[in-house]
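__Protein archive entry__

___
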Amino acid sequence: MNHTEQVGLSLAKKAGLHRRLYDWTLHWAHTPYGSIALFALAFCESSFFPIPPDVLLMALAFSIPRKSFKYAAICSVGSISGGCFGYFIGYQFFEYVGLPILNFYGIMDKFNFVKEKYNANAFAAVSVAGFTPIPYKLFTIAAGVCKINLWTFIIASTVSRSGRFFIVAGLVYLFGPKIKEFIDKYFNIISIVFVVLLIAGFFVVKLFK
């Protein structure tokens, strides 16, 4: 087997594993342990797990729309807590734990980019991080490596992660299951709008200081 075939086989295996994890994540929405699983998934995704919690959040919210905001709150607390764990990994165990995680997902090339953003404005970088296509675990681990202020990290994580999950919950609550296709198709655009508003808010606050 040549190198190209080996790479192709490796990618196929990863894709198959990702699909199985995706299906496994969704199945929790049909069990009595959906809320617990949502918290655990949000926690793990912020530091090492590949499937974003939005998947299970939407499934649970679609099943009981009136509990959408409750699920968003659970997801937010789990994600912020997991982010602190990712921060700890970067702060204390980057070489032994953090580095292998980033290498596994093939995102080490983005590590220096994130470090630059932290050096420029840590609060803004974390706040925007929850809405970027870059996996959030990169930001949490890098925050620990850069040793940014922990409270800055927690407050900014609360803004970004809660904002993301409550947007999803609000859309489901208002429009029900029919909004699923819209979220799947336009979530990146919704995220960009939120980030623009967030940045605008920073400028307004700075203007009136």
Observations:
- Residues 3-207 form one domain.
- The CA atoms of residues 62 and 177 lie 5 Å apart.
- The two ends are 64 Å apart (CA to CA).
